[in-house]
Amino acid sequence: MRRIGVLVVVAVVASACAAGGGAGSRHRLTVFAAASLGDAFGAMAKPFADAHDGYAVTFSFAGSQQLVAQLQQGAKADALATADRQTMDAVPAGGRTAPYVFAGNRLVIAVSRGNPHQIHTLADLARPGLKVVLAAPAVPAGKYARQALTKAHVSVSPVSLEDSVEGVVTKVGLGEADAGIVYATDATAARNVDAVAIPDAQNVLAEYPVTALTPAGRQFVAFLRSTTGQAILRRFGFLPPPATP
To answer: Are residues 64 and 151 in the same domain?
Structure first.
């Protein structure tokens, strides 16, 4: 059975302006972001607020495809960060700035602590009786996982398809699945799973684009591109954005 994705909202209110501005003078900035960015973006909240006095910042984390669907249904946000370019492309170009890839990620195999099933390669995921869970095909993590399996010439029959990469990590951590393919950052942050590396020849580089949906959203995009924003992303294990010509 597929899990129902849950939208997680984190609100961080910047201090009032030094000139004595009250709550009424604060600007509201809403950022929709892929679930895998939760920890890193959460750590950016205070530095961003400190650098943009008078702002109240709200992060909404969910599967990239869920966030885009909400925007298509009329939800309002100032910036959007997804876990792949294809999902971002579903947002009409007329209502956003040109997407900028601000970070990368790699895939790993998530297994229970201690790797009790001795899973060491993608080929091991095809073993009979092994319970494998993947993100759904519409989820960026699911697309990347299937690309990696194709590279490795491996076919698996997942016992569950999750609405976000966090769902995959959760099921492996709870013992409801033996293994899953997730982002390296998610496996590192989880306390109850271990990560098995996937060789470069079979791995897929996940690219995270961000776009501003309003003039205010440009400030968050600029922060992501700044030295401070990039340093926070590195601290949480994200890779640098690709070099631009």
So the answer is: no
Boundaries of domain holding 221: 8-104+207-235
Q: Where are the alpha helices (DSSP H) in 2-153?
A: 38-51, 64-72, 85-88, 140-151
Shared domain check, 129 and 46: no
How does pLDDT run across 47-74, given as a tens digit for each residue?
Answer: 998 888 878 789 999 999 999 999 999 9
* Beta-carbon-side half-sphere exposure of residue 110 (alpha carbons within 13 Å): 35
Residue 225 lies in a domain: yes
Q: How many helices (H) and strands (E) does the chain have?
A: 8, 11
Does residue 82 sit within a domain?
Answer: yes
**DSSP annotation of 239:** B
* E strand or H helix at 84: none
245 within some domain: no
Distance from C-alpha of 245 to C-alpha of 243, rounded to nearest angstrom: 7
Class of residue 107 by CB neighbours under 10 A (exposed 0-12, middle 13-18, buried 19+):
buried
What stretch of H or E contains 104?
Answer: strand 100-105
Calpha distance 168→72 (Å, rounded): 26
Q: Is the whole model's pTM more than 0.90, yes or no?
A: no
Q: Residue 220 — very low, low, confident or very high, per pLDDT cuts 50/70/90?
A: very high
Asked if the structure places residue 2 within a domain, the reply is no
Is the same domain home to 118 and 91?
no
Report the DSSP pairing between strands 132-135 and 160-162: parallel
pLDDT tens per residue, range 159-191: 999 999 999 999 999 999 999 999 999 999 999
